[in-house]
Inverse folding.
């Protein structure tokens, strides 16, 4: 008899559902800010593409503004055509839900929260990262063309242009 079966038959309480935990604060409660500028979006894409080139990866890179609208896009030579829409989707999902798309991937694959896939606009695949400037979301980057982990590496390189640690005064 397993310990879990023993707990059930002996009337001992089972562990509570982790989804029943009530956080003190709203997760990912980052305010939306003014939309990212074209100049900033191009700098984000430039950094992401530089990382992809360094690794000889062919990527599609999209930057959306704080309203989820496409601001800039670049398709590297030879990048998979299907990944164009995926990169855009990752950028929109990251800004709309105010969190990296890896959170959805982890929710589905590790925590088996399959209901996440029922939300409009969700993509459970790494590579979408919000762009946060001075505490406000100004947009998001989405990358696609490689594996999820490759997409995430390239997205992080691009996001680093905007997502700087807060400076101590």
């Amino acid at each position: 008899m397993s310990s879990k079966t023993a707990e059930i038959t002996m009337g001992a309480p089972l562990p509570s559902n982790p989804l029943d935990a009530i956080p003190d604060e709203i997760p990912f409660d980052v305010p939306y800010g003014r939309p990212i500028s074209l100049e900033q979006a191009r700098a984000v894409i430039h950094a992401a593409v530089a990382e992809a080139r360094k690794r000889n990866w062919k990527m599609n890179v999209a930057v959306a503004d704080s309203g989820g609208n496409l601001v800039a896009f670049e398709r590297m030579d030879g990048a998979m055509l299907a990944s164009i829409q995926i990169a855009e989707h990752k950028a929109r999902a990251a800004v709309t839900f105010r969190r990296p798309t890896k959170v959805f991937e982890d929710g589905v694959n590790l925590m088996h929260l399959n209901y996440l896939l029922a939300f409009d606009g969700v993509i459970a695949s790494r590579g979408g990262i919000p762009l946060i400037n001075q505490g406000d979301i100004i947009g998001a980057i989405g990358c696609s063309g490689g594996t999820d982990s490759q997409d995430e590496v390239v997205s992080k390189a691009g996001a680093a242009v905007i997502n700087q640690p807060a400076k101590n005064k």
Notes: The chain has five helices and four strands. The mean pLDDT is 90. The first strand starts at residue 60 and ends at 65.
